[in-house]
Amino acid sequence: MLRRQLLSRLAGLSFLAASGAKAEPAAPKKKLKVMMKSAWGSDDPTRASFAFVHGLALAEAGHEVQIFLTGEATYLMRKATAAEIHPIGWPPLMETLEKVKARQIPIYS
Questions:
Q1: What are φ and ψ of residue 50, in 5° steps?
Q2: In the β-sheet with 64-69, what is the strand arrangement from edge to edge?
Q3: Environment class of residue 58 by beta-carbon count within 10 Å: exposed (0-12), middle (13-18) or buried (19+)?
Q4: Low-confidence stretches of the chain (pLDDT beneath 50)
Q5: Residue of 29, 102, 108 whose CA lies nearest to 73
Q6: In whole angstroms, how far apart are CA 42 and each of 19, 70, 105?
Q7: pLDDT of amino acid 22
Q8: What whole-number distance in Å separates Cα of residue 7 and Cα of residue 1?
């Protein structure tokens, strides 16, 4: 309790000191170029979806994304295989692939 009060007082002091200084405009965020690589196939559906789900999240954040599939992951590009991939905690792979294609994220396999 005492520690919480001390921290709140310190936070208040830094806020008062910052309000007297001139506020500088925030620097624009740097756009990253990201290549997501995956070799996971249909034997582990959750890991197989990592590259697509994370790549989509990065693209939605404004970064430039490419997805590169090797080995077993290349089979995920077959519609029949992708339709059967249901990762735990995320939407089915077909749904994610549709969003990836809508964002025009290149997929190399």
A1: -50, -55
A2: 33-38, 64-69, 107-108
A3: middle
A4: 15-17
A5: 108
A6: 55, 13, 21
A7: 59
A8: 10
